[in-house]
Amino acid sequence: MPRYLLFPGRHHLLTRFQADYLHRLATTGHHDTPDGDRAADDGVTVVWAVTSANHENTRRNPVPYHRREAAIERFSVLAGLRSVVVPVFDTAETDRFAEVTLKNVAAAAGLELTPANTVVACSTPQVAAMYARLGFPIAGVEADVDPTPARPWDVLLRLAADDPSWRDLAHPATLDVYARYRLDDLVRSVVNDPVVGDEGGLTATRDYRTYAEAFADAAQRKWTAVREHVRPGRIVDVGCGAGAVLELADREPALRESDLIGVEVARHLYEECVHKKAQGFFANPNVFFYRRNVLGGAVFAPRSVDTTMTFALTHEIWSYGDRMASLRRFVQAIYDHTVPGGVWINSDVCGPDGRDRTVRLRLSTTDGANPARPREDLASLPADRVAAHLAGLSTRARLDQFAVDYRFPFGFRPVDDGTGAVVELPLGAAMDFLTRKDYTDNWLSETQEEFCGLEWADWKALLADVGFEVDPASGPYRNDWIVTHRLAPTAALSTVDGTPLDWPVTHVLLVARRPVNT
């Protein structure tokens, strides 16, 4: 009879089959023996190694660890099992996963699991094989039974698909914890999320360390631009990144009685916000962070927020959602949760006026290589090789590569002037390229987003349609630092007949107020 049953897995959902199987295994010492008359208090302990314990709100790991642990403890009581629950943080893919898990159990619970005292219960062949190589006997759980019962993840997907049969398969402990903490709604929202990937980010190629550093560097400039428009009370930063702007709001004496709330969808950035709060970065005790995708529906109750701030967010909603339809839903949600007299402050990129008109763009061909054709396989390369390849291209060659990787197709025509440096294309496409051409570290992420989808007239029409009043402080503007350091050194803009054009606007500041009488 073993002393321990090691049960590794993510354990987001527990099933009735698991309860019967583990009880038989714990009370008989062998998974295929039907006799289950002995009580489970004879010293056998089920060790639940809960993997990806530091992940939540992702498609692969929708349920937070503490809720999984609660369900396991409830499950153990109802199934008559003596259990120990151990969190195992996510690790890079390794063929030593079994050893890593055993060391976690030893460190967290003081249990030395060996082939002599432990049976491993695991239905995943690749994982079971790792333990078998170490000499552990294996109990296959669902894999032991023919026909194979529904695995927990399959039951969870039934829940996400609104298939009521999931309730017949899930264990009462899961049903209870899911109902009390509304985890069924959470699972549906996360698994069916149209934007966020399996690991909780907008794109798999985004370097969030770089983004967090950029947010921190720009925070003071952003706060200075919006501070005078912030209304005290309940202040929300949607898409708050690593919380840098809220740190500055926290230092404002006039806002010391306000609630400061950050909403962030990217797991990496949300975790940094939580870490900062735990480390005492905020003096205001009423600072809160939520991990939510604003495209998934309302985040706040109607008429409950005094100030909403969004920085470099609306172009992402446009790009990763259904363009204007998604953006309008977002703006409507902001309006709905704003108190009468409250304000939405939005700072983002902006398309140039007349973005569809054709212009000529002259690009440098002497600042790098000019290969005969762009690469079609950048996505298959490691990130450092992608950056190195792009860094070696001339600005003109980067346009060719941009046209391959950009998710929003556009046409351009080389102008036969003997230099190979001039092309004709829509003004909006030209500015989309020029404002991204230097982002070599996050190229494959940046080429998934459109900066110039809306121009100033579009913004005014959208806000008026939803019901906002546009404050006179609002308007488009040109970031002259970008012009001086990024555009002018390697590019020139003209009409199709060669008349030079000044660089257009690049950004917009919107101060939109909900009328007091609405």
Automatic annotation (TrEMBL):
Keywords: Methyltransferase, Transferase. InterPro entries: SAM-dependent_MTases_sf. GO terms for molecular function: methyltransferase activity. This is Class I SAM-dependent methyltransferase. GO terms for biological process: methylation. SUPFAM superfamilies: S-adenosyl-L-methionine-dependent methyltransferases (SSF53335). Coiled coil: none annotated. It comes from the Bacteria.
